[in-house]
Structures are given as structure tokens and as C-alpha cells.
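MODEL INPUT / OUTPUT PAIR
PAIR INDEX: 1
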Amino acid sequence: MADLEFSAEVVEWRGPAPFHFLVTPPEESAWLGDIMREVTYGWGMIPVTGRIGATRFTTSLWPRQGSFWVPVKDAVRAAEGIELGDVVTVGLTIRAG
């Protein structure tokens, strides 16, 4: 069972290459902020196992402006047919460091 589950719009953040993310809603962001010191491996990054549809993946949540950003890898987007702007549901389980 996931530690948290929420739905969010796929957004893009442009760096050297475009990256696709889901941004945690306020309630989930507050919970993650409360437990962050116990589970981060540095810089506020939180290791998680995620699930979107039938696709499971590992990643780390990025703290940013009071929320956490969930990277959605290209392989996950391709497997689930996810496009920029789609609203998807993600389940996240915190991985012990």
C-alpha cells in the first residue's frame, strides 16, 4: 500500500533538457515536509517507489517552493501514454535510506 496517493497535472520544468513532473498538493506537501528529516538522503530529496497505472518506478522527490516535485520518467510516460497537461494519479511509497 502506498504511503500517499494523489492526482496532479503533468507539468514541465525546463533545464538543460525538459523534465516532466507532478507537484504534490498542499496536504501531501505538509506531510512530506514533516517527515523529510527522517527520510531524506540530503538536500531534502526523498527516495520513493512510485506507481502510475500499471507502471512501477523508483525516483526521488525534489523539494521546491514549499511542495515536492515527482519526476515522471520518459519510460513511465511512454508506458502509460502520458502527455504534458494530463492529470494522472500516482501512488508513492517512501524508501528507507
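PAIR INDEX: 2
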Amino acid sequence: MVTIPRRLDTEDAQLALERIQDLLKKHALVENLVRRQEEGDEQADIVEGLLRRQHEVELEHTLNQLHPADIAFILESLPSEQRRLIWSLVNAKYDGDILLEVDDWVREDLISSMNREDLLAATEDLDADELADLAPDLPADIVAEVQKGLTNEERAQLLEAMGYPEGTVGAIMDFEMVRVREDVSLEVVLRYLRRLEELPDHTDQIFVVDRQDRLQGVLSISQLLVNDPDTNVKDVMKTDYLSLKPNDDDTDAASAFERYDLVSAPVVNRQNRLIGRVTIADMVDVIREDSQEQDLSRAGLHEEDIFAPVVKAIKNRSPWLLINLCTASTAAVIASQFEGTVSHIVILAFLMSIVAGIGGNSGNQTMTMVIRALAVGRITSKNFTSLLKREFIVTILVGFIGTIVAAGFSWAISGSFKIALVMATAMLCNMLIGAMLGVLIPIFRDKFGKDPAIGSSVLLTFVTDSLGFFIFLGLASIFLL
């Protein structure tokens, strides 16, 4: 049985990364120094080999004292060339666990550097649900070869898990769980558990099934321990429990875990047969991935290796920046139509950016709240109208406070009451537009099956900038000239 080192906390993991980076610098320095020696110098070649091996041994020793999750963190924090060097020095017994821990973009890089024998060795000891996680990134012939070494039950489990789309409960469920019958005593259950080498991770409840594996209830470990051993399972099991379907969205499942403080939950099919379970560890991964995707989506980005080639980074980042450039150009064109107004009252050129900026900020505040509410399923067709009304009321109240400040500022630098009034009116109107769009844009994107976070801020900025300039300069043209 492989003994896995303890996990490090965040600070210690960062210190471990810095230690590895220092060793890599020394390794690179030695190689550069030796390369300066004349080619064909036998003595230099011997020295190079000894020094390289010395640093590799030190790196190996440092790495293999770390938990696979911490090694995964280090691999994600290194450029591709250094990442592959570190990967080659990691103890092979940790390869499978590390591949499960690293992000997808690092996993693809590592797998591409491994030969067939290494891939087979890394996957041979993994469970069916873990193999299903890796299968999309593995060559098809490796997956086929791995299946040959599985039992019929494991092979069926693997094919079942691989059959569910990414983002569903079925794709992340595992098959290690404890099940018992309802007509046995707690003493029998305890004896059965003692025969096991260990309980599956995060076992807080035992699943009670009939002879056809249909789920009848759940027996919590606490109930098992505190009740009389002669009591039957049926008398203490819970029949009021949360179960999930394999096609349920994993984000919805994560929300249920958060809402009900769950540690594990059974997964059943249409016939109520128990086919797997999901645990809090799976849900934490789902929540983390969704959070990362939302953070990237707000900037119009997709997940990418931070050390990816420049060309790949440009392809990822340029589309929404070009769209933003086009929208900004549109706003500039609108402003140019009021050149005469601005040339007569130059102070307007300084004030109009405030109107556009405040409208965009107001809308972004609303949009952030709405995207978060959509993610946890709190917005429905029945509360949409009341949500829109609420945002209008909040924006008007906040806007009045802001317009007083903005009007005072405008009057102070321009000395004109009319400019201050135009400034206040335009700012309040643009804030209301921003609030309305902050609700509508993400909701409509979600309704049409698009990620509400992707590009929403770009669309919002385009409208608040364009309309902000138009409203402010239009009012100025009407009332100030």
C-alpha cells in the first residue's frame, strides 16, 4: 500500500514551489557553465553528468516528500520545459494521482510527454471513476488497453461513467460505497464494516437497498454507533434523503450540497436503483472550476496555460479585445457627432467620461449580483420582474446621492448651474440604463444557453459608454447652446 505524504497548507506549498524553483535555477546554471567548455572535452562531460545528477537527486528528494496535490500545484506554476523536467523526476507511483489533481491544460501537456508504458503504469491502479476523469485526455488505444485489465464490473462502471456528458453528476460520481439491507441488525452491519480494509472516503452514511439494488433509505454512521446493536436497520434509517440523478447538472448538485450541508449523496437511475454516489470532495472541485471559469469569462477569456506559447495566448485573448475596440470606436463616433457642442463648451469633454464611467460601474454591480444569482438558481421567470423593479429603485436612490455630488463638482469647476443640472440628469439616466442592462444581458444570455459571464461586461460597457455620451452631449446641445 502506497503511503501518501501529508498535504501542505497554502503558505508551505508556496515555499515548496520556491524551493523547487531555486533548485531548477541551480540546475540550469550548471548546464550553462558546462556547455561553455570545449565540445568533446571528456572531463567536462563527466563533470556535467555528475553535477546534473546531483541536482536531479536533490530535486527528486524534495519532490517525493510532497503530497500529489502539492506536486500538482508546483507543475501548474512552472513553464512547460521545467514542468516536464520535474515530471520526469516524480516517483512513478504518484503519476496517476497527480494527473487527477492537475488542471486540464497541464494534464494535456504531461500526457503528451509520456510514452505508452508510462501511461499504462500511471493508470493501472486507478478506480473506474478516476479512469473516466482521465479518459478524455488519454489516447484511445491506452483507454482500450486499460479496460482489458479491469473486471467485468469495473469495465461496466467505466463505460457508464464515460457515457455521461461533462458537467453532469454521472460524469463525476464514484462507485465505492457501502450498502446494506434493511432487515439486518446494526450488529451485523458493524461486523460487515470491520471486515473491510477501510471505508470509502467521506463515508458519512450507508445506503440501504433491496435485493434489486433499489434505494430504500440511508443509515448515518452516527445512528449506527449510538443505537442498540440489536436494532434493525429499518427502524433507524432515514427515508427522507436527497438523491441525485446521473443527468443532473453538477452545478445544481453543488448548490444542493451547500444548501443542505451534505457530505455525500446517492445517485439513482430512473428505476431508483443505486448506481453511485457523489461526495463533498467532488463538489468542491465543481465549485472551484465554476468559480475559475466565471472569473475568466468576465474578462472574455478561456482557460489557458499561463506559460502557453505567445501565439496561443493571442488567440485566446484577442477576440473580445477586438470587440471591445469596435465598441469603444462606436462610442467615439457618437461623441464626434457633437463636436460643435464640445468645441463651444470645452468642459463637457472632461465631464462626459464621468457619466459613461458611473453608468458602467452601476451596471457592473447589478450584473455581478445577477450572474451570481443565476449560478445558484435563484432567478426564475416569476421573480424576474420584481428583481428588475428592485434594481431600478436601488439605482434611483443611489443615483440621487451620486448626482448631488456630481452636480456639485460640475458647478464647482464650470461655475454653471445649467451644466451641473445636465450632468446630474445624464448621469442618473445612464445609471438606470446600466442597471437595466445589468439584469437583462446575463438573463437573456442564460436563456439562450450562453454563459452569462462571457462578454457581458463588454456589451454593458459598449451601451453605457455610447448612450452615456449621447445623452449627456444631446442634453448639452439642447439646453446649453
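PAIR 2 NOTE: The beta strands are 179-180, 205-209, 215-220, 264-268, 274-279.
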